[in-house]
Specification:
Blueprint lengths: L2 H7 L11 H14 L2 E2 L13 H10 L6 H14 L3 E9 L13 E8 L2 E5 L12 E2 L6 E3 L2 E8 L2 E8 L10 E6 L10 H9 L4 H4 L2 E6 L2 E6 L2 E6 L10 E6 L5 H9 L22
Helix pairs in contact: 3-4
Length: 283
Amino acid sequence: MDVQAYLSRIGFAGPAEEPSLEVLRSVHKCHQLSVPFENLTVHSGGLVQLDLPLLYDKIVNQRRGGFCFENNGLFSWLLCKLGFRVTLLSGQVKNLITGRYGPPQDHLVVMVSLNGRRWLCDVGFGAAGFTVPLSLDVTGPQELGHRVYRIRENVGMSYLEWQQEENRGQDGDWMEIYKFTLKPRCLEDFAEMCQYHQSSPSSIFFCKSLCTLLKPGGRLTYIGHKLISTTFPSEGTGAELETTTKELKDEEIPGILAELFGVVLKSPLVPKDEAITPPPVMY
């Protein structure tokens, strides 16, 4: 890895000689603002392989993005190179259709241990992700802009939950995002689920071509034949998110991806936005 090339790719310009919470928070947010969460390889005739040199070439040299196994897998390598103590964790995402959780190794997340404290890092969860690391040592709400997160534990399992601006508060409506254990994993543990998400009609990544990127004050999302622009409300206003949707023609999509997301594909994209089949096995 060329660490400086990676830091330049994500727009990080500060000093990073020593691992610190300030550096961790900064590179986490820079990654979110620079590297898309996308699955376009799946829909342009390619195959995602969990090999770190390949992920580095794709995300840094080709200036692409990826889904959780790619973004968090490569990000964990960067953190190791910067001197952080890193542990890969296995998560299970809650299915919005069935209300059940996905199988083990459904999601890859990263834990960083720093000065006696533990931090949850995740630069590979798209629109529901958090901009800076969350503390694993805090049980109460953690406010990040227009959202509030909390991590609760139950019988050896940790649960990540969130609230939107309009119902925030300890007694508000909490929505479960995913659950995870603190058992250390390695990147190879996720190979089977990486293949599953590229081939299963029960996976959003197989059923929909998508690309989303955090922007200052909002988010841009491409999915199928739509471009969705989201503007976040100002903190403390209680306002709701503002969302606009634009329908796209096939010939417009490559230009949109290049101009707004910085993504240039080597092979033609086949746009896709199909219904997701509920998985037969529930967890």
